[in-house]
Amino acid sequence: MTKRPTPAAAKLLVDCLIEQGCERIFTVPGESFLQVLDALGQQDTINLVTCRQEGGVAMMACADGAMTQRPGVAFVTRGPGATNASIGVHVAMQDSQPMILFVGDVDSEMRDREGFQEVDFAAFFGPIAKWAARIDSADRIPEYVARAYATAISGRPGPVVLALPEDMLGRDTDARPRARVERPAQAPCPDAMQAMMAMIADAASPVAVVGGAGWNSKAREYFQLFAERLGIPVATAFRRQDAISPSSRVYAGNLGYGPNPKLVARVKKADLVLAVGARLGEATTDGYTVPPLVAEDRKLIHVYPDASELNSVYPADLAICSDMAEFAESAALWDDSDPIDFDAGAQAHSEWEEWATAHPTDHPLDMGQCVQFMRDTLPADAIICNGAGNFAGWWHRYWRYDGYPTQLAPTCGAMGYGVPAAVAAALRYPQRTVVAVAGDGDFLMNGQELATAVQHGANMLVLVIDNAAYGTIRMHQEREFPGEERISGTRLLNPDFAALASAYGAWSATVGTTDEFKDALVEAQGLAGLRLIHGKIDIEQLAASGATVSGLRGS
Known about the structure:
Blueprint: H1 8-19, E1 24-27, H2 34-40, E2 47-50, H3 54-68, E3 72-76, H4 80-95, E4 99-105, H5 121-125, E5 131-134, H6 141-153, E6 159-165, H7 190-202, E7 206-210, H8 217-230, E8 234-236, E9 251-254, H9 261-269, E10 272-276, E11 299-304, E12 318-321, H10 324-332, H11 344-355, H12 367-377, E13 383-386, H13 392-398, E14 407-408, H14 418-428, E15 434-439, H15 440-446, H16 450-455, E16 460-466, H17 471-480, H18 497-503, E17 507-511, H19 514-525, E18 530-536, H20 549-554
Parallel strand pairs: 1-2, 1-3, 3-4, 4-6, 5-6, 7-8, 7-10, 8-9, 10-11, 11-12, 13-14, 13-15, 15-16, 16-18, 17-18
Helix pairs in contact: 1-2, 1-6, 3-4, 3-14, 8-10, 12-19
């Protein structure tokens, strides 16, 4: 039997990805892109990670892009594969993370007949992606791939979706890959920097809110130098807690859900807010109230890499369109003969230290004490990955996100992100400690990716916090419709998560007390590969804020 060669178009697509620096692709294989799978099998530059569901695929790619600042790359098939993957595209969009999703599409001759699994992908993904298109010409593959990378990493980073007609992938072509594209330089305007420094000098109680689009280790280092020199309190945006070192003498804590009330009051009363990289979205600002959307006695300096975001929601007194790292470096190195010195940064940091210290409770499995023990046991640069749910609040409040990156968590509040993100992190940083934190409801959204972790040798720890409920929704129910007889739709009957992990080949343990958790964590830390700790807590322990079922009913 004559061996069929890899089609030129499919090989070209893979060569273009290699030219752009792609090192890893996440996929659930589909017959719609068999040619690409064949091309990937003929090279050794790109690592192909085979996953179990397209939602996990897309979230791994999103997390990979968040860590590298280059697009995470995913391949899925048409119809069900693409719609499953859409959640990861939505996360990448709202989280401002670079990602490219390639979707195997129907044959060109089948289009517009509602063929097998046919979807208009440009229309479907258009509202939740920076760009969604279809490659109809094999000769234009280099153009589309280069543009996809440029779009994903420029301005406000985000996801791109490219559909690949099955027949196009089988065509001949003499085209060659385009050169690697980089993020365009965006230095801040010197006049704007001068105006900013003057506004800060005139302020009595300024505060900075940082972290978001295009933030990286360089931005973190230089902005911290700048803020510490001036003594400005620095709050991080929702789930951007690694944007500045928690040991910084001006770190004031995080905004979002469950923040320090003293920080909320400080931001509300600030006469100048310096927002850098943060969109000032609904979660960070608690519904556009922290800071107030409009306030006559407050000035706003908004620094962001995309001009279309500036003044779109919050009116800025000074808008600076700049790359985060270049802005931070310019600010840190700004030569100002009239030094500015605030003492509020040290005060805010002291308030955060007090807020972020867990005090023992009478719960058998005391989550605050568990997180505090993790801080004493795990490396400071451990990467903590979580999805959505009240369980995450204990880590947001008590964990110290030291190093960069150390927090992978969806700002859009998507469930099921933690385990896939941890797989991506463990493969990207095999020398670091990676922890997936999940609630029982959150875990079963993408828990099947434990199989991916084992298959690809991911070294990671999974913590499942099980209260037999969709805890966040239960909390809202108790607040709005209190009473045992009013509980509806939030109770869960769960499997034995430790036994489930064992079935995947993982080391596992079940714990019901704080001491049992400590013993299990120490044992797990001494092992390699996939490990899972199943922690059983009572629904009474609702949140890191101290909220309880009985307390909500009593109020």
